[in-house]
Write a structure and sequence with these properties.
The protein is mostly helical. It contains 18 helices and seven strands. A three-stranded antiparallel beta sheet has the order 1-2-3, with helices on one face.
Length: 429
């Protein structure tokens, strides 16, 4: 039976001299293991700028390869040659098989959208191989790799193959339920409080509050220092810092896409971070780090879990899911799709509401503020200025319209910190 494992590797690129990190795939047959060279070359070329992207792509490719190993067409074929035999029908049949398995389990996931999107990912992988000169049986001018999941005959076939009882839910019903669970609105104040209350470890509470106040990605938060250096040398424990303004600048290095950007952090949020984590929890955790690793915790690391281990984006994701599930079990009405990343949407929406207030409900030209656009673009780290801005203007409008007759408290208290805001009602007359 084919077994494929994934491993994250870091090395210095011999061409550019830069540090490169990405996942690789290793196939195992009994005691023998082989590198999936073609897939690994693609992962290096397409995903070395983001660990999360590399993790996603490598996982999807490994799932597809495991499926190919079950087909009679590939019996006796060396796995290193799979790429040369894959055709449009193989990708299409894989997607159909995933729908069959999903319907048999009557599961909402993976949704049809996910199945199609991951089919596109596989298609892109083989298209890259073709561009690099590797042989392939795919016809890139035909779209026969994409199943028509709206076709009634195909849906009936999937249901028959899944052996679902007559009263079982079909793909359309499952997808409808999946869509209903997706959030198209901002995380609410009550959801934020419930989410924070679900964490067992206060380090994640501190990180989520800092994320709300800065729109930093989890990967950026994990790199936030105890004491900064270079352009960030002013970043220190709050009591040692001096402020000329309500906010201070902080440069994020090697964020998504290996890009750098300068953001602003409210001094009140840094004070709250110091009071609730840096001054109270960090010293003991730094000692645990030293005991665990045999050296003092470096000043470049601030966020440590209760065991003294540096917090990683994966740990944030895992603990966030656990916190949400715990909150729901304890009676919270928070939506099932609330996640840590909602902080990324909260900040720009609140920024626009603070800046423009009820003007957001007027003519769009009234809020086409170039300075505001630049601030939002820099803080979020998005390359598209107008698309990003227009999207969050729309979200902010929805928030205001949803509470017609009320004004968001942040509008009247533009200098509120995240901690202050969370202690008060979301809306007041």
């Amino acid at each position: 039976m084919l077994d494929i494992s994934r491993k994250l590797i870091t090395y210095t690129c011999p061409v550019s001299g830069k540090e490169t990190t990405h996942f690789i795939l290793i196939a195992g047959f009994g005691k023998k293991h082989f590198l999936l060279s073609h897939a690994n070359l693609y992962l290096r070329a397409a995903t070395s700028q983001s660990k999360d992207t590399s993790s996603k792509y490598s996982n999807v490719i490994s799932v597809f390869y495991r499926y190919l190993a079950t087909l009679s067409k590939y019996v006796g074929v060396d796995i290193s040659q799979y790429h040369a035999l894959v055709d449009n029908d193989d990708i299409k049949s894989w997607q159909v098989q995933r729908e069959i398995e999903r319907q048999a389990k009557q599961s909402l996931k993976p949704s049809t959208k996910t199945i199609v999107d991951e089919g596109k990912l596989i298609y892109g992988f083989f298209y890259w191989l073709s561009l690099e000169g590797y042989s392939s049986c795919l016809n890139f001018k035909l779209k026969t790799w994409l199943p028509n999941f709206k076709n009634e005959e195909l849906l009936s076939y999937i249901k028959r193959e899944a052996r679902v009882a007559l009263d079982g839910k079909g793909i359309k019903a499952l997808d409808r339920e999946w869509r209903q669970q997706q959030s198209y609105s901002l995380i609410t104040n009550q959801e934020i409080k419930d989410f924070l209350g679900g964490f067992h470890d206060a380090v994640y509470v501190a990180m989520f509050k800092l994320a709300l106040g800065t729109a930093m990605r989890p990967m950026d938060l994990c790199d936030f220092p105890y004491v900064g250096n270079g352009v960030n040398k002013h970043i220190q424990p709050y009591d040692n810092m001096e402020f000329d303004d309500a906010t201070t600048e902080y440069r994020i290095f090697y964020s998504k896409g290996k890009k750098h950007r300068d953001i602003r952090i409210h001094q009140g949020d840094l004070k709250a971070l110091s009071e609730h984590y840096t001054n109270t929890l960090y010293p003991e955790r730094a000692n645990l780090y030293a005991a665990r690793y045999g050296r003092p915790c470096p000043p470049s690391i601030l966020f440590l879990n209760a065991a003294g281990e540096p917090v990683t984006p994966k740990m944030i994701s895992t603990r966030s899911n656990a916190a949400k599930e715990r909150a729901i079990r304890n009676g919270s009405q928070m939506r099932a799709d609330v996640c840590f990343y909602d902080s990324r949407h909260w900040w720009p929406t609140m920024f626009l509401i603070k800046r423009f207030g009820s003007k957001l409900l007027g003519e769009l030209s009234e809020v086409k503020d170039v300075a505001a656009q630049q601030v939002l673009k820099a803080q979020m780290g998005h390359s598209s200025l107008h698309t990003t801005y227009d999207h969050y203007v729309d979200v902010a409008r929805v928030i205001l319209l949803a509470h017609e007759g009320y004004v968001n408290e942040l509008y009247f208290n533009a200098d509120q910190t995240v901690s202050e805001f969370l202690e008060k009602p979301v809306f007041s007359e």
